[in-house]
């Protein structure tokens, strides 16, 4: 702790070269803990501010005690700028004077920046201070006018630079209301736009909210000095309250209620059109000389050009954002048995928008399709293609096509558009009854699954070329399963790739976030899946490395009501679709495991394969596969009985054969007869139904 002053800042490190440079230029540093209201700094800062000569009783390291050290005229200015910087998480700076115990006055200049914590709240202000007493004395000497002109020239350059860097209308308003006019320290600044005769307050400092409420979004009276400035495209100056009352008696009543004594109304003219007005006001009577009026007029021109550019930017950005909002689904449909959450983070500005999209598609049979994709490019064209592709893919999926066919048709559709664009995509069909996922990938990222034990990892999915490159590309389906409560995560590459972060590192970050404990819904009142989506999106939004849009889609399989899967499996198998047989076998394995009769899996899978193969090889129609599990009550022994049926529309009945030792087929019905507890063939109007049953008694 320095005597009567600030303790040295701890915890921050600075480059080795910075301290000698600061020492050589007489610059001190400070650190203000906003929440605890404690000021810390180095010895030079204490000396510059004058704390080395202040008794300990006068300074308790709080912001209030620090302001008490300032000149009464400067303390309100410093307080307003600091409060504004804290509210907007921005920067601030000012000249101020301090008065020592012996009445000696010194001038100090500071520049600070507000830092936010992980929740986006103002936490600290850090910055520099340096002695400006010499500059103050110069202004008091005979060359005061020359120095003032130099400062004004420098001010115009700095203002032009700051305004040129302002991107949005909000940025322009912030820069304007923080401008320190040299030699003309204003007590109030207002920036307002003008459209269709109405005024909109864009930013203000030094005014209470109620003072401006009567003007915001209201018609500007024709007799108001601001209206005169807009009509004449020339500044209007009022040097005193008396002058204001004499020149504008119709609107004097509103001005009378303020504490202002003089005003400058600067019209903002861009491309020959008045788009707004700046108001610079002072608490005392002030008759501005020619140099001061020229300075304010020049400032008005700079603000006008910056505001016009910012309004165009905001309009373009809103157009682009609106276009993208229209392209993306407005709501995600609710599907019983699953919970979904989606997030979209835009990274571009102006018309630089991406072609990322997500979709959740209810499918026939109560299942659900998940889509995540990214069209090449970051422009309106890419967004338009994205919208067309999303609608086409959604239509193919809703028609009930299997995942591989959905992806192949989408690829042909994009190729037929002849846009020279391609798209990456992952499509996953989720069997809501059993938690089975059938995923197809076209040049996109693998899905990531959060398991029931809290671990998370990528699930490798067989990949194909991006959509639109090879219209005849055939895509392979990868199957994996979810247990109740497990979550599958699909995202675009903006989440896991950025400048300075490769794909492996990005996926590792994502899995680490997914592996963190989920929030307790009793404490938050929200579904843990929404909390998890917000956590992932928040980490991406806070990253300074992100340059791409992000689409994020999460689905949690909640499982059937009561925690037991539906004990019926029903699937249609296309004629001569031998590949479908393997899929049905895999679904049957999952179903029997979930039904608690895993001991039947091997036999049931073998016999089912024989019946299905027999049906589709020896008929010219589709086959319908159905598996049901029946349970006896505990009083009757609790026996479980599995019945598997295969229906077809052929009247040709199967014939049991006795093949020789070297025969490669013909043993299907022999296996059914030998392994099943019962089997048979039944007519069903048109066609027949083959069935077998297996039973198991629970162990005592």
UniProtKB/TrEMBL annotation:
Keywords: Hydrolase. InterPro entries: Bact_Sigma-Reg, GAF, GAF-like_dom_sf, HATPase_C_sf, HATPase_dom, PAS, PAS-like_dom_sf, PAS_fold_3. Gene3D superfamilies: 2.10.70.100, 3.30.450.40, Histidine kinase-like ATPase, C-terminal domain, PAS domain, PPM-type phosphatase domain. Residues 167-317 form the GAF domain. Residues 338-557 form the PPM-type phosphatase domain. SMART domains: GAF (SM00065), PP2C_SIG (SM00331). The keyword Lyase does not apply. It comes from the Bacteria. Pfam families: GAF_2, HATPase_c_2, PAS_3, SpoIIE. CDD domains: HATPase_RsbW-like (cd16936), PAS (cd00130). The keyword Isomerase does not apply. PANTHER family: STAGE II SPORULATION PROTEIN E (PTHR43156:SF2), STAGE II SPORULATION PROTEIN E-RELATED (PTHR43156). This is SpoIIE family protein phosphatase. It comes from Kitasatospora putterlickiae.
